[in-house]
Design brief:
8-stranded parallel beta barrel; two-stranded antiparallel ribbon; homodimer; 49% helix; TIM Barrel; 9% strand; 10 strands
């Protein structure tokens, strides 16, 4: 039985207990959420997952780190390092988005070594195999699309991005409503090209029941991809984006009915004043499915610092109900991230997620800030370090300009406003 | 005549013309804003200012970089370097918050070399002189408080933070409504101690007319300081903070009437869901004065990354109407910032300010993003670099993992979704 089926039949499972304990909520709360589809627990039946996490309503906002090779840079060792640093700094999930080198080996390593849930985008492997066979993307084989999903499911992948909403209907709408950036989702763009060239429907949509059957067999959580997410502020919240979202909502209901967990992916690039409505509409159109947003980035002018542009959007989106944030690293829009970028990206995403959790009233979130503030007031630097998102950073930075009085910092020194017993007073 | 008086009497001045040109608005729009007090143009009559900027309603969100020595680290050279890098990366103002070394020389250098407006907090000099004379902060001389303001005004300081709302009434309220962090504003804490020890009213409040007279003489813009700003999320939006704000509103009206420009400072540390109401209330209570916010930081758990926590809050605050953002650097809460921290802080603040300007419909803001997106779509890397907030960063980062195909980046390489003419298609 899949987790959603167990929850519907009110059968307690260790996964429910484990996530309930982590979230400090009742097992019943988790099971009701899973049964209704408002909470998902991505975990393949073939995986022994050290850290099981739930994503959805009432729970801590989770974050994902994308790793993986590209055709231009291939090193399994480096990707494993990225995975390790992502997990160390608090990633709740990693996605292997590899498109270069031996994809199967890469994924095998990640699945073996990752203590957290692992996601993939199977169409990348399909595209890669197609191109390596000297064929074009438009010649991707529809049978291979399902074979790869089954292969990756068997290997233990916990959740998969499938762009089921890139269909004839939405592609036609995109043609009628042109946008500045076109389709920026990699998987989405493969499927758009395929649909147009072959004048055929997206196999993942046309044979959605077949996809559900595989997902059910391995209890894969489907992450319905946003192939039409805006690639720049000017394209945000347009017709194709919302049409796709509404189709993903239909598919979410069908998945739930079939006993398959589903979450919905979201943009992307959204200006500040459209984030709230994007989140509210996404929850509405997808029947309160867990939302998995990439960013959103609130301005396009700061390449090199897109982890910041994205933390701004992510914090706001999560505060309005987004459940799962995909990090953006400082190297976004410039190159494949390196290990340090992964660290910076994870930390920025965690700042966004946690600042939202404070206002979502997530258990323990306010308390964390309270304690940090208390120790700051007490000028207890050891405790501040311990509580910090990145304790090593606190130590290193503080050491760069040390204070003369050890209970202060070198910003204010003897004039520290926190020192009640200030000898200057 | 001060700028506000000229504006009230409908006399065009070159300052109005200059800022109107920069903002791409009419001179009339600027003059009406200055006359009503909704816009300020900080510029001392004794300064020849290369770059004149206005702050307020309908204008580009401005950013300030705090620089200056502390008792623990004193280097005029380094502070000038900080000023230069801040201006290079787009700071519209710098504040000299020096408390260590020769304060007069430091300020003289900054006033000489800064092309942008310079602000100070005169009470720091008062406190510093008092302590150096082997006295306690509580023994600060009330005459010296005004002498230092006059001295700095004469030297050419364009705007000054004065904590006029830290008064017997608000100090008493703070005693009745205790908070976790107490008073974290340095200037505010000096005055609280002084008021309590001397059982006397804040001289800057009691003799506010005297302060206005000096400000008027040199056309100083008063930046009414928030001595009771929250120092941690748990203290946000409490009684003392709002009582002080309401008093600052009274004082703003008095200043306008006397021909003195005034802006109002704001917090600090605010959770995501209280930022909008803080901004709306601040505008209401201060009769639509230009608002100058420090941050706000939306979580306290990420020391070492507070420029990110602050960019989140700053973007939201500015989008709801904050006009002027004081940057926060990565070293905040840990130590005095170094040159690189200043750069990182300015860039984070500019991302916040610009992402808000997009939704404030500020002239040129949307267009900047539009053009960046257009060149991204065209994979015109040279133009993307030129348009970027930090072109050098774009170049350096891109070079770290170069793409095999020069019109792509090493993230997707040959699978780039932007390549219409993709040979794989």
């Amino acid at each position: 039985m899949t987790l959603i089926e167990s929850a519907k039949q009110n059968q307690v499972r260790k996964e429910f207990e484990e996530v309930a304990k982590y979230e400090q909520v009742s097992v019943d709360f988790i099971m009701k959420g899973v049964a209704s589809g408002e909470i998902v627990i991505p975990k393949n039946i073939n995986r022994s997952l050290k850290i099981i996490r739930a994503v959805g309503k009432g729970l801590k906002t989770k974050i994902n780190a994308n790793i993986g090779t590209s055709p231009d840079h291939i090193s399994i060792k480096e990707e494993i390092e990225k995975m390790n640093i992502a997990v160390k700094y608090g990633a709740d999930a990693v996605m292997d988005l590899s498109t270069g080198g031996n994809l199967v080996n890469m994924r095998k390593e990640i699945l073996e070594k990752s203590p957290v849930m692992v996601g993939t985008v199977p169409i990348y492997q399909v595209a890669s195999q197609t191109v390596r066979a000297k064929k074009k993307i438009t010649q991707m084989d529809s049978e291979m699309m399902f074979d790869v999903v089954e292969q990756q499911a068997q290997e233990g992948v916990d959740f998969m991005t499938i762009h089921c909403g890139v269909i004839c209907e939405t592609v036609a709408m995109l043609d009628r409503q042109p946008r500045l950036m076109g389709v920026v989702s990699r998987g989405g763009s493969f499927l758009v090209k395929w649909i147009k060239a072959n004048k055929r429907e997206n196999p993942y949509y046309e044979q959605y029941d077949r996809l559900l059957k595989i997902a059910k067999k391995y209890d894969i959580t489907l992450s319905l991809g946003d192939g039409f997410r805006p690639g720049g502020n000017p394209d945000a919240s347009d017709g194709p984006q919302l049409a796709e979202l509404s189709i993903l909502g239909e598919l979410a209901l069908r998945a739930r009915k079939e006993g398959v967990q589903v979450m919905i992916e979201g943009p992307g690039h959204i200006p500040l004043d459209q984030i709230q409505s994007n989140v509210i509409l996404a929850k509405r159109l997808t029947h309160n499915s867990p939302l998995y947003f990439l960013g959103p980035i609130v301005t396009d002018v700061a390449p090199g610092y897109d982890h910041i542009s994205s933390a701004i959007g992510g914090a706001i989106a999560a505060s309005y109900g987004v459940d799962f944030i995909c990090y953006v690293t400082p190297s976004e829009h410039l190159r494949l991230p390196n290990v340090n970028d992964v660290k910076e990206g994870v930390i920025a995403a965690r700042i966004a997620a946690h600042s939202a959790d404070i206002v979502k009233n997530i258990n323990g979130a306010k308390q964390w800030d309270y304690e940090m503030s208390k120790y700051r007031k007490e000028r207890n630097w050891e405790k501040q370090k311990e509580l910090a998102l990145d304790p090593l950073k606190v130590e290193q930075e503080r050491a760069k300009i040390t204070p003369k009085l050890e209970d202060t910092c070198s910003m204010c020194g003897e004039f520290c406003s926190m020192r009640e017993e200030n000898e200057n007073s």
